[in-house]
Amino acid sequence: MVAAAALLLTAGCSSDGGGGGSPFGGESTTPGRAASGSSPSKKAAEEAPPAKGSVKVVRTVTEGLNTPWGLAPLPDGDLLVSSRDEGTITRVDGQSGRKTELGEVPGVSPAGEGGLLGIALSPDYASDHMVYAYFTSASDNRIVRMLYDEKKPSGEQLGAPDTIFKGIPKGVIHNGGRIAFGPDKMLYAGTGETGDTGLSQDTKSLGGKILRLTPEGDPAPGDPFPDSPVYSYGHRNVQGLAWDSKQRLFASEFGQDTWDELNAIKPGGNYGWPDAEGRSDTSSYRNPIAQWRTDDASPSGIAYAEGSIWMAGLKGRRLWRIPLKGTAASAAPQSFLQGEYGRLRTVVAAGGDKLWLVTSNTDGRGAPKAGDDRILEIQVR
């Protein structure tokens, strides 16, 4: 593994999982090459956010959640949250915090880092009321969609799951699990290599990848490999996906012993694992735009707001802000809430300068306190 420590500005974070300033790279391209589809003049035209930002915790939305993982805001302001270990989806009233269980997702087989993970609403949710979920079954990781019928009794509101995609490798560790619909209305999924590092560089394997699918589960039009849903490869364990205001995709990735990463994702890009962890001198691998020592991050969910990527840290127990200019970090990453709420799993844009932030202290690796786990509403800039 190659890490160009000389390129760092400050000390950096961990693979599963905390610190001060973080190292970062000034560009997301492979060494010596400009980012595809961009030019220096276009990058220069983009205004960078302030080097220093701020975070204010507005309120605790709800408490008492068990192993929360995925979060999907509903159009009316309420929130859907998945429980990794219980295999259930719960609706949280966005104002009062009242919790209503919609039902249990059949076929979930929780173990280790696996279970009911990411959830997302259909891009046509207003008309089809479909909820998508990524989960670990007895044999694989898979993506299903379910009809959410609010007229049915509590606990019975989820329809039978329709499996749209299966065969993603499963393991006790590194199951990936984040799903999100992009600006193109295609479904993106971050997967892990299950600890079998050879899967990441194998473009015929679904492990250690970012996948891009149609809402029906087929390889999306324009994917870089013929008849394949693989969008990018050479990943270890992707649990964060977010797009900026220019519709550019970013992803967070757990490192092993040296560097966690934030990457700007390009179709067909190779992000180096297991040969590279963090920045590398190998021209065929795309370098991260920011990297952290593994004790300082262990990044899971990410969101974009106010010109920056906001990244939830598990072992790091903090929220990171990475200000952007184009697809590069424009200033050193800045951390907030260090140790105040424990492990942080998921962060989701709530509109404008607001984010939803989900803690993860009941996941078997945290130290739960009274009220854990919880959803916070935060204001950022």
Order of helices and strands: HEEEEEEHEEEEEEEEEEEEEEEEEEE
Query: Tell me about the biggest sheet?
Result: 5 strands, antiparallel
Q: Name the overall outline.
A: globular
**Mean pLDDT over the full residue set:** 91
Radius of gyration: 19 Å
Task: Identify low-pLDDT runs.
Answer: 1-41
Percent of residues in helical segments? under 10%
How much β-strand is present in the residues? 35-45%
Task: Give me the secondary-structure category.
Answer: mainly beta
Task: Report the strand count.
Answer: 25
**Counting H and I runs of at least 4 residues, what is the number of helices?**
2
Distance between the amino and carboxyl termini: 36 Å
General description of the model:
Helix content is 3%, strand content 35%. The chain is mainly beta and 381 residues long. Strands 18, 19, 20, 21 and 22 form a 5-stranded antiparallel β-sheet that branches. Strands 1-25-24-23 form a 4-stranded antiparallel β-sheet, with no helix packed on it. A hairpin with a 4-residue loop joins strand 7 (130-136) and strand 8. The longest helix is centred in the first third of the chain and has 6 residues, at 40-45. It starts with 39 loop residues before the first helix and ends with a strand. Mean pLDDT is 91; it is low at 1-41.
